[in-house]
Design brief:
The protein has a domain of 32 residues. Helices cover 51% and strands 0% of the residues. Helix 2 crosses helix 3.
Length: 90
């Protein structure tokens, strides 16, 4: 008798939508707002639950505040031996 592992037919089917997603989609469709505008409105709504406002802020942040890009820097530090550093000071 096998235990654990992948079972065919188990889990949520691809493309299925949760009830919460359906509610959010219905609200967006009713208001005609884009998802980012909706998230910002919920985030700014002082009557909304704090946890929900925080969640919307986290979700909207990547669209409003881009991440810093990587930078190229010369990290080759020229570290001298103690004696060489003293000689340079003289």
């Amino acid at each position: 008798m096998a235990r654990g592992g992948k079972r065919s037919g188990a889990g949520r089917k691809k493309g299925s939508v949760s009830k919460r997603s359906q509610e959010v989609a219905a609200e967006i469709t009713a208001t005609g707002k884009l998802p980012l505008a909706y998230m910002l409105d919920v985030m700014r709504d002082e009557a909304a639950d704090t946890a929900r406002r925080d969640e919307m802020a986290r979700a909207a942040a990547p669209f409003v505040h881009p991440r810093l890009s990587s930078i190229d820097g010369d990290l080759n530090l020229h570290i001298h031996k103690h004696e060489e550093a003293l000689a340079e000071l003289e």
